[in-house]
Amino acid sequence: MILKKIFLVFLTAALFFGCATAEKKQSENGELNEAELSYLADESQHRTFLNSVKEEEAVLRKVSAKALINSNGYDKLEKLMSRELESGQGVGIAAPQVGVNRRLIIVQRLDKEGQPFEFYYNPEIVKRSGEQKEGWEGCLSIPAGFGKVMRWYEIDLEYDRLKEGAVVREHEKIRGFTAVIFQHEIDHLDGVLFIDRKSGDEPLMPKDEYYEMRRREKAAAASEEKAE
Ligand code: ZN
User: Fold this and answer.
1) Residue ranges in 44-111 assigned as alpha helix (H)
2) Residue 187 Cα to ligand 1 middle (Å)
């Protein structure tokens, strides 16, 4: 009887240990865990997370974990990210911005024909080069407005790609504004927001004001073109 009890205790311990190990393995290899899967299944919770909401800012500030391309639930995550990016009319979005701390981003490839929106799993900048340039940036997660940020002109990017069922690393050189989008989105995966890198001490320019400034710039450029 006692032996049986000991065996049961041992078995329970072994099962518990087994589960804990499985859970750990799951998050290390990039598969979504139970909490993430149930969040993705509950559409009523889906939204763009904002830095003006305390609980949402905490998610935006976390370092995200590895993502596993093509594994369970990532189709749902991709759909949610696409939808929020489209409704916000942005050029890029990162998974933490929709509440999932995984290393997955969408970038609009303004440097490619047709300017497609593409997904990048576990993207990493392995080299920064060229000069640094200052430019205006905004963020779907920062309602306060736009600010100027210094970014590298050229980056060497590595990311995962599926090749004949296996995950392989891809390497690519990217320049110009598309490289700026990658730098902004990959920062999100490390809990960094553009306001952390903003140059100068001026407050952010409110969104309405920024769009008005851009509209005027465009109009001025168009009338200049006409005059020529
Ligand atoms: Zn952003």
Assistant:
1) 54-60, 74-88
2) 8
